[in-house]
Each structure stands twice: as structure tokens, then as C-alpha cells.
Amino acid sequence: MSRALGLKVEQLRVVYDGFVAVAATSFEVAPGESFGIVGESGSGKSTVMRAICGLAPRSGGRVALTAGAEAKTALPEPGSKAFRQRVQMVFQDPYGSLHPRQTVDRILAEPLAIHGFTDAETRIERALDEVGMKSGFRFRYPHQLSGGQRQRIAIARALILEPQILLLDEPTSALDASVQAEVLNLLEDLRRRRGVSFVMVSHDLAVVTHLCERLMVMQRGNTVEFLASADLSAHRALEPYTQSLMRASSGFRRGQGTTPVPTELA
Amino acid sequence: MSSNAADTLLVVDDLRVAFPNRDGGWFEAVRGVSFTLGRERLGIVGESGSGKSQTGRAIVGLTAPEGRVSARRLAFKGTDLLNCSPKERRALRGGRIAMVLQDPKFSLNPVMRIGKQIEETLRAHTRTSSGEAKKRALAALESVRIDDPERVYRLYPHEVSGGMGQRAMIAMMLIAEPDLLIADEPTSALDVTVQLQVLAILDRLVSERGMGLILVSHDLRLVSSFCDRILVMYAGRVVEELSAGGLAHAQHPFTRGLMACLPQLGASTHPLATLDRRPEWAL
After folding, report:
1. I want to staple A102 with a disulfide (CB 3.0 to 4.6 A). Which of A106, A114, A129, B74 is the partner?
2. What number is the average pLDDT over the span A219-227?
3. What are the residues facing B244 on neighbouring strands?
4. A188 Cα to chain B: minimum distance (Å)
5. Cα B191 to the chain's mean position, in Å?
6. Order of strands, edge to edge, in the sheet holding A19-29?
7. How far apart are CA A185 and CA A189, in angstroms?
């Protein structure tokens, strides 16, 4: 697919009432690439995503779509309807991100209506099929679905507009390990088939390195380090913060030496 | 930490928890769980819907009112939990058996200062003057490694971070000095580094105070690195018991399948293995 788009974020800054949530973050996602953002809560990783798609106010910096070498036609500006059609987001918690009183059918029809697609019927059928849901699910309500099924619907809702960039905000952290594996496989498969670029936020290093080729580590609104996933897997992180995250993700260790207890009390 | 037979805190024999379903029948969420607990760290691991939380809730006596709890024996330090009076049960709950819930954002009272919430536990179980209660609340906050107890004492839950809120909840549970603490996903809502801090606090309390701890979690890796013993639950039953660090020798296909579908740092497996659920596991 030649229409793959990339993303360029320059000096992105998000400030809420004087609190700097994101301070001058820059990164680039090549067309078709999968890029991960890792950090703890409050690091600004989700805010970066929300600022890209216009859910958080941008107080500075630039967000732009990029195409490959060919086709230098004007790409849609952030905030425009055309931009939103190309950049879609999947949220963390499928228990909170689907309208509880709308059927799957209506949830999927809404973005189509907004963007003026006329072939809703076939698109809904296809979107459900793509995320591995039988059409029997089409007239169910979210509460009749399991967590994994809900997240599939959330992914279908994002994919139904045929976006070229998918923003994934902790897409599997609310799911069981076995369901997480299914959703991760689904995402990989979709990326291979449709050539979509991913930007994925997660606190789970193993999940990010599984799905992404390159990643960025954030802490308190600042970029700590850029890494290739292979480097992270091979424990070649340079920054002490990244190393401490890696240690923490390997599980609990008895004895104070390895457990990061608050320094003032250690 | 060793547990000998004389030191048995809790006996659970053939515990069953059932809820009415729509067509007038009963759905059994927990189907015959048995274990004994000494002064040790026991992990209960399973997926959502496996009955792990309902097991913990039944022990504390927090099963939803429409649920039906039965067991051949459910005893805490010789007290029969199923046949004792509600008054006795209430005295045990929060006093001798305490429970830490998953998300501090939803399980703390949003309109009550943290200090007052901690004192509330104490008031419910002992006669304490308000001066004494405050002193003990501050000490409890200090014991969960909160730097400035005086400040946190005055804060409302929305003013603290998740890790701080969870520590406050642990402080609240510990102030009555329970013998048994049931922690239901105590760290799932927290960051990895904070997770380890909270676990280190629980770990210290178990070894220093000789408390029994049941850690309910979906995170097999985390639990196996923390607990002395692990029960793996599937569809309301214990399918496997593992000793600490015995994860690699797990026998049951469910446990092994669960391990296999976790992405691992340094090992690239594309696509990930998915769990092939066998109907016979749920028999």
C-alpha cells in the first residue's frame, strides 16, 4: 500500500494551568513504522497522543503528517476533519470507551456518518470481520461483550475510517494476558495487511518491544531516551531511568539492594 | 518465613460461591476451593472470571448479598466463619482480617480526609481517644513509608497519587493490626516501580509482624516473584499449586499456556501464542 503516512512531532508542548505536562517533545514516525512511547503515569505519554489527535490543547510545537518521498501534495493539517479521518485512536479501557447504550452497529456507524461515508453497511460488515468478530455481535450492547471483544470493537471503530495512523493508548492493559496476546496478534496482522503506522503508548516494556521497532522513554513530560526495540531487549539502555524501568519490570526481588524503595528511607 | 501446622491461620475446605442467574438457576463462581494458610505469602492467580476475587471476598465476608457461600469448613484461627454471628463476623472483618482493594481511586471515600478514614477503622474496632487515634494514624502512615504523614493525613484522596493512595489504604487496613491481610490486585493500578515499593511494604509487614497474606492477582510473573506459594485458578477451581519460583515447572496446560502468551523482553515470538482453552479444564 503506497498511501502509508508518517507523523512528525516537533517541540510539542502541553501546559495545563501552568503545569507542564509535556515539555518540548520531538519525534518522527516513518510511514508504516510502529513507534512506542514508554513511561510511568504522569510522564506525559498519553498526553502526547491526545495532543496529536486534538484531545489535549497544544500550547506549542507542531504536529504534521508526512508521506514518503513521492506525492508532495498537501497533507491535511491537524484539527481538520481529513486529519481526523487519517489519524484514529484506540483508548485504554474498553469498559469506558464504548457508549453503554449504543449497539455495536451504532458505535461503528457513527464515525461513518460523521465523515460522510455512504457504504456503511458493507464497511461495518468488513470492519467486524477484520477484527475477528462474527456478524452476530453486530446488534449487541457493550455490556454483553467480554473485555477482549470490546477492545476489538474499539479497534474496529478506529479502523472503519481506513486511517493511516493508529494511536494506541495502552490498548491491552485492561485485558487478561491471554486476551492481550490475541489483541496484539490482531494489531500486528492488521498492520501487515493494511500498512498502517502505529504509535503505541504502554507502561509494559515487553508489550512495546513486541509490537514496535523503535521507542521513546518519557519521564515527567521530558524525553529520556530513544531506543531501538532490539537494543532494549538486549539490555542496551543507556539512561539509568530506562534501566530502572527494566529492572522493575522483571518482577519483585527480596532484599533492599534491588528494590527501588524511596531513597530518603532506604 | 516458614509455616508450621500449629500456626495455621485460615482453613478453607471446599469453598463454593454461587450467584443467581437470570433463569432462576445458580452460577457457581467458586467451585470447591481448598487450602490452608499459615503466616506466609500465598498468591492466588487467575484470569478475570476465574473466581479468585470471589474467593478472597468470601473469606472476608464481602460477598454480594444475593450470593450464596458454602464450604465444608471455613475457619479463621478456629472460629467458624460461616456459622458465627454477624456481630462476630463484623468484629473480625477489618479487625483481624483486613482487605486491600484494587484501585485507591474508587475504594477510598472521596469526601473524607485520609487521616480520618484511617482513624475510622480504629474507631470501629477499639475504643480510642481522638488524640490517640491521630497518633496511631500518623504512625500507620509512617509505617507504609509516607514521608510527611502530617501532610498526607490532612489530604483528600483526589489530592494524592495512586501509589500514595494505595499506601494510605494499606495503612488503613494495618492500623487494627490484623493477622490476615487479603490484598486483591493491590498493585494493578500502579506503575511498575511503585508496584515494587508497595510489595516491599507488604513483604516487610509479613516478615516483621508475622501476618498472613493472600495476594490475589492476574499477574503470574509478579506473584511468582513475590509469594511463597501460588494457587492457579481456572473456572472457579484451583488447577495447580506451585511453590515459589516453581513457575518454570508448572504442569497444568493452562498455567503453561498463560506463561507462553506473555510477550517477553529479549525473546521475539511473532505471532504470540494464544491460549487454546480446553473444555476439560473447566470440569
Report:
1. A106
2. 92
3. none
4. 8
5. 18
6. A19-29, A6-16, A60-66
7. 6
